[in-house]
Structures are given as C-alpha cells and as structure tokens.
Write a structure and sequence with these properties.
The protein is of the alpha+beta class and 129 residues long. The protein has a single domain, classed as Gcn5-related N-acetyltransferase (GNAT) (Aminopeptidase, 3-Layer(aba) Sandwich), CATH 3.40.630.30. Helices cover 27% and strands 33% of the residues. Strands 1-2-3-4-6-5 form a six-stranded mixed beta sheet, sandwiched between helices. The radius of gyration is 15 Å and the shape is globular. It starts with a helix and ends with a helix. The relative contact order is 0.15.
Length: 129
C-alpha cells in the first residue's frame, strides 16, 4: 500500500483524529494525530514549527488528544531517543519511558532509508487529566 493510500485511510478511520493549529494568517503551525486502538490509545504524531514552540501550541494539541481518548486505556507514543525537548515535553504530561526502544513504527524510517532510534513512552490515562 502506498503512503498516500495509508494517509487517506487514516482520515476515513473514525478511531483516528487529527487536530491542526493555525496562526492568525491561517498558516498551519502544528498538528497532532491520535488513534484509539483496541487495547490502548496512541499519539501517532505531534509537531509544532520550531518558531512556534514554547507558546502553548503543543500543550493545546496534546490536551485535545488526551481529552478525546478512551478514559480506561493507557496512552503510548514513540519519540526519537535523542529528542530531549520532546521527551521533557511528554514528561510534563506524565509520560514515562517504558524501556522499549528501536525502530518502533514505520515513521522511524526516513525516505532516505535512515532509521531513527525511538523510545516508547506511556501514561496511565487517569494521570493524563
């Protein structure tokens, strides 16, 4: 399946939701993709333009995702192991490293073939609110 087809499927999936943050000019400055899976909730992606970071945009996007999730399931995400800013951001929401690491999903492989080292982080949902 091509990447375009996978992306199109994601937008048709009622268990996956995408939030987009825009500035006053309607320019996209960030987004968050979240998925309700059978046994857990997953933050698939969260990104804010570097020029817009540390302004609360990421916090608003994360809060939207956490509020949307099933309340009885834990939340997991994967993050590049050397992205300390992101790891610190997730810690503020209560996420903890699980010890799982490696190439954890298809997003860790760049078009160039380079594989980014990831770690898994999780939060019990009751801690998320």
């Amino acid at each position: 399946m091509t990447q375009i087809k996978r992306i199109a499927q994601r937008y048709q999936d009622k268990n996956t939701k995408t939030w987009v943050a825009e500035n006053q000019d309607k320019t996209i400055i960030g987004f968050c993709v979240a998925t309700k899976k059978q046994d857990h909730n997953q933050i698939s992606a969260i990104y804010v333009l570097p020029s817009q970071q540390r302004r609360g945009v990421g916090q608003l996007l994360m809060k939207k995702a956490l509020d949307w999730f099933d309340s009885q399931k834990q939340v997991s995400l994967n993050v590049v192991s050397y992205n300390q800013n992101a790891i610190t951001f997730y810690h503020k929401f209560g996420f903890k490293k699980t010890g799982v690491q490696g190439s954890l999903d298809t997003a860790s492989q760049l078009p160039s073939g380079v594989i980014l080292p990831e770690i898994e982080m999780k939060i019990e949902f009751s801690s998320a609110h």
